[in-house]
């Protein structure tokens, strides 16, 4: 049996003794932009990935040294070409943040199996494909951070989001299993679960289902919706050196709506 890779000295920032690269999917969305900014502020070189390549470029141009890669996570061929492109522009991926997600709101008995398929492709299969591509390098280098952005709706259940919750809750099992497999190599694997967060996606849902969003907001003990920055701070912490002994955990960022 080969020896375990030697772990590097713990860095004091994500720049540390060498440059660290962070890949963020859904990086042009409300939460994704905030995550990219937080990781860049911590010293990481960020690769911004998004279905909207032009928006990803806009985000990357605002961050030092960042690059953008357009990628349709629903299409495995596009994912493969995106992975190849990332290998071209970055010699490593040290931090992998699975932030992208799609949802369709409907009572389960009225939901469309075609929507199930899309959500499974983007929310479940794509994180598996990307992790499979970049995890071996983390193991070989003796350092890595996997952060899966799921949902409090997946953690606690949410009416009208059964299929979405099913695809996002799959990340819990994946993250915990990877945590057990890779902890000895200096790789951590954790899940962040945003609660109701003021994003363009939630505003769009609010336009279609205003009562649902108002009811959610009233139930939050903190008295407000979350912000993208709230979620980004949690992701940046789990991606950073201070969280090196935290793995296999699920962190709810929800203002106390779930406890």
Automatic annotation (TrEMBL):
It holds the Pfam family adh_short_C2. It comes from the Bacteria. Belongs to the short-chain dehydrogenases/reductases (SDR) family. This is Glucose 1-dehydrogenase.
